[in-house]
Amino acid sequence: MNLKRLWARLCCVAAVGVGALASPAHAQTGACCITANGAITCVVLPHTDCTARGGVYRGDGTVCGNDICAQPRGACCLRTATGGVTCVLLTESQCVAQQGTYRGNGTTCGNDTCAFMFRGACCVRTATGGTECIVLTQAQCAERQGTYRGNGTVCGPGSCPTPPPTGACCVRSPAGTLVCVVLIEAKCAAEGGTYRGNGTACGNDTCPNPAPTGACCVPVAGTPNGTTCLILTEAQCAERSGTYRGNGSVCAINTCTPRGACCVRTDDGVTCVQATRARCAEANGVFRGEGTECGKDTCDRRSCPCDWNHDGSLGRDDVDAFLRDFIEGDADFNGDGETTLDDLHEFLDCFTAGCG
């Protein structure tokens, strides 16, 4: 090769090298989605420029189109105004803004997409007395006598804290009787009840009601009335050969004073009351005897109308009682509405004849 041709080749090589240095390779560009003031704008930029402007680069060679910058959407479970649940397709931000639950990009609405919202954490008691958490519907939780934590809740370390132990508690009802309810010890104390212990249950004899008590007149030698008054049950009173005055009765001054039927005259005629001998005398009544009871015929004169003092026999006391009433104008023996000599004569005839 001669010198002239060699020089020509060197010149060509040099020209190519200079051209390569003067024209570097063209940088790759693509669609860049930039968000500003709540709006998304698409600009074709190199990847580095897109990143520098906080955009999302869609790839080399991509161009701006109608949906190149559209945000991905997915199923969003929303609570309705009536308490139901509906599923709509939204972007994640749209779903969050409506307080919904986003199921993920690309998910679609189906029959069970939002079924999880009708279930939640349920705390049920175990056989050993502890609790465990299970995700159930509210109805399923109620069937197992559990505590429902709400739709959409999940089981976690603190979902079902161990409840305080409970037991049988004997509390007094408004009627005054003891009833059994299962409570925690603190609640039982607040109700003024008696706690039977952790884990105890209510049974027929858990809270036995004491027998009712009342005033009992027990014989005691040397006392003014020969008796003393004690508050006892009816059975205890009988064991002491006492006289029981009734449930709820109390000891008072005259509780154990011997009483009996007393026939007393009133505006409506003669009536029978239970009284002591002294009280009967104060009322100008006729005392039928200690321990006697008032009956329908206790003070009835019809069997012997001249037994004026109702003592069951005829005697001077009947005459004295009749004459006292006659003087007071209250001795209508024959029932004609007036107290006259006719009443006196008929009384004396009856008294003389007797009441055999």
Task: Describe the structure using short key phrases.
356 residues, alpha+beta, three-stranded antiparallel sheet, 9 helices, 31% strand
3D structure, described in words:
- Among the domains are: 29 residues, no CATH class; 41 residues, no CATH class; 49 residues, no CATH class; 28 residues, no CATH class; 46 residues, no CATH class.
- The chain is rod-shaped.
- It is an alpha+beta fold and 356 residues long.
- 23% of the residues lie in helices and 31% in strands.
- Helix 8 runs antiparallel to helix 9.
- It contains 9 helices and 18 strands.
- Strands 2-1-3 form a 3-stranded antiparallel β-sheet. A 3-stranded antiparallel β-sheet has the order 5-4-6. A 3-stranded antiparallel β-sheet has the order 8-7-9.
